Amino acid sequence: MRGAYESTRYHTPRLAMIERFHKLKVCINNDLIHIGSDTKFSDLVWSKIKDLIDSLQPFQLAVEALCRRDSTLLTAGTTLKFILEKLLTQDTVLSAELSEALRVRIKERRTIVTGILIYLQNPKKYDDDTRRSDDTFTMLKKNYTTRNEKYLRKIQDDSFNEKLENNLDSSSLKNDLTLQKELQMQIQQDMKTCSMNTKKEKNFEKILKKEMTANESEGVRGKYLSSIHEYLLTIKPTSVEAERAFSAAGYICSSVRSRLAVETIITVCFLRSLFQNQK
After folding, report:
1. Residue 227: helix, strand or coil by DSSP?
2. For the segment 15-54, what is each residue's pLDDT rounded down to a tens digit?
3. Mutual orientation of helices 240-252 and 262-277 as an angle, nearest 10°?
């Protein structure tokens, strides 16, 4: 979410400003008396400011965690639970209102993907979450359903088709082929894809059930579950990474280097991200 990105840039300094204001409350009260101002801050007002600080501090930490490069849907779920637990311990009117608003937002945005990812990551934790009475982080029932099968198969097929498209889009391969051979190759490849999909359609349910049983009993993911797990881990909980890419491209393609080709900008951004991840 773009709001998380903006929070790191603007909202964090605002919280720091409020914290400094509260630390200087004695000096502020004395100065107001010294200048003869009619404005006064009662103990109740200072107490409300302190409640505001206590309620916003978990959000500050959560936003920083969500905006990390290694954040996933798993870390996002843990972060949101952390906020709700901290708000619950504060037991104030403001914390209760913030907690309720956050719960409503979570229910609106939470999808089936998070539940599947938690199951693949830790089946025992998945079972514990399904037994919770709190419906904010609603989990799917562990029973193998047709809907789950279709969704998991779609993820697996998308991953396979993506690899297939990357192979077909190789410019060096197409340049060495005539149009007729290229068309024939495309037809053969499409036929091969259909036959592979038919085979997977026949055995997918049996294999997946077997891998799910092994995952629950031994904690070992099979080929399909590992592929799905890695696929889902690439989903980012926020759009911060996209914002970082836009910012990096803005630095690279400046007024001094305004004639860079699109391919060059993409390559430089990719290398920049690669080197940063290797640190």
Report:
1. helix
2. 889 999 999 999 998 988 888 888 888 999 999 999 999 8
3. 120
